[in-house]
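User: Reviewer 2 asked us to show a designed sequence for the structure in our supplementary figure. I'm pasting the C-alpha cells here. Could you produce the per-position amino acids so we can include them in the response letter?
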C-alpha cells in the first residue's frame, strides 16, 4: 500500500472533481481569482495536461482509441510528470495550486466507469505521484442529464465524452462514494445552482480551509 501525504505543503492544494459539464473549469478559475484577490500566489492547472509532456499525452488520450489499461497508464504517466515537475515544486515554494481534475477522476472514469478495479487504479496513481493527495477536493455534483445538456450545447465531444449508457451514472455514484470515504478531504457542492451561487460556496469552503490551517 502506497503511503499518502496530504500535509506539510506550504501552499494550499485544491482539486476540483465531477463529471464532464459540471462546471469544474468555470469554478476552478473563480477559485484562482478569489485566492489572488486575497493576496495569495496561485497557479491554475489541469489534468490531463498541465505540462508540455502532459499536453502531448492529453492529445493522445483524447483522440486515439485504446484499451482501459493503456488509458489508465497514460493518465498516471501524465500525473507523475505533472505532480513532480509542477504541482509539488509550487506547493513547496508556498504557491497555492488550483487544479481541474486529479486522481479521483481516474478512479471514477477508469475504475467505476470502465472495467478496472477502482482500488488498483487509485494505487497506480498514488505510486506514480509518491502518494500525493490534495488538502481539499471540491466535488461538483450534478445530474448527468443536466451536465450532458451543458456539454452538448458546446458542440463537439472528445472520445471519453462520447461514452453512452449508464457510464455517467456509475461515474457520479463512484465520485460520491469516494467523497463519503474521505470526508476530511472532500466537500460536495450542488452544481445545479447558478455560477455565482456556486462560486460563493467555493469561496467560503476555501476560506474555512485556510482559517483551519
Ligand atoms: N479523464 C479520465 O478519464 N481520467 C482521468 O484521470 C482524468 C480525466 C484526469 C478530459 O477532461 C477527459 O478526461 C474527461 C475525463 C477524462 N472526459 N470526459 N468526459 P477535461 O477536463 O478536458 O474535460 P471535462 O472535465 O469533461 O471538462 P468540461 O466538459 O469542460 O466540463 P467542466 O470543466 O466540468 O465544465 P465547464 O467547462 O466549466 O462548464 C461546462 C459548460 O457549462 C460551459 O458552457 C459553462 O459555461 C456552463 N456552465 C458552467 N457552470 C454553469 C452553471 N452553474 N449553470 C449553467 N451552466 C454552467
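Assistant: Here is a per-position design you can include in the supplement:
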Amino acid at each position: 500500500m502506497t503511503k499518502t501525504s496530504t500535509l506539510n505543503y506550504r501552499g494550499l492544494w485544491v482539486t476540483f472533481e465531477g463529471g464532464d459539464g459540471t462546471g469544474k473549469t468555470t469554478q476552478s478559475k473563480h477559485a484562482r481569482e478569489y485566492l489572488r484577490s486575497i493576496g495569495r500566489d496561485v497557479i491554475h492547472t489541469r489534468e490531463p495536461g498541465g505540462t508540455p509532456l502532459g499536453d502531448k499525452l492529453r492529445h493522445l488520450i483524447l483522440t486515439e482509441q485504446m484499451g482501459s489499461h493503456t488509458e489508465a497508464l497514460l493518465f498516471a504517466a501524465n500525473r507523475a510528470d505533472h505532480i513532480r515537475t509542477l504541482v509539488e515544486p509550487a506547493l513547496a515554494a508556498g504557491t497555492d495550486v488550483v487544479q481541474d481534475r486529479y486522481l479521483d477522476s481516474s478512479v471514477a472514469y477508469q475504475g467505476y466507469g470502465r472495467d478496472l478495479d477502482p482500488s488498483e487504479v487509485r494505487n497506480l496513481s498514488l505510486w506514480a505521484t509518491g502518494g500525493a493527495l490534495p488538502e481539499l477536493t471540491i466535488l461538483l455534483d450534478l445530474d448527468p442529464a443536466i451536465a450532458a445538456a451543458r456539454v452538448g450545447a458546446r458542440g463537439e465531444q472528445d472520445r471519453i465524452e462520447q461514452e453512452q449508457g449508464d457510464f455517467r451514472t456509475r461515474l457520479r455514484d463512484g465520485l460520491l462514494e469516494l467523497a463519503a470515504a474521505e470526508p476530511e478531504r472532500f466537500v460536495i457542492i450542488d452544481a445545479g445552482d447558478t455560477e455565482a451561487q456556486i462560486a460563493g460556496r467555493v469561496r467560503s469552503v476555501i476560506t474555512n480551509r485556510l482559517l483551519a490551517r
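For the response letter, you might also mention the following. Helices lie at 24-37, 52-63, 68-92, 103-113, 118-129, 144-152, 167-181, 195-211. The domain at 13-212 is CATH 3.40.50.300 (Rossmann fold).
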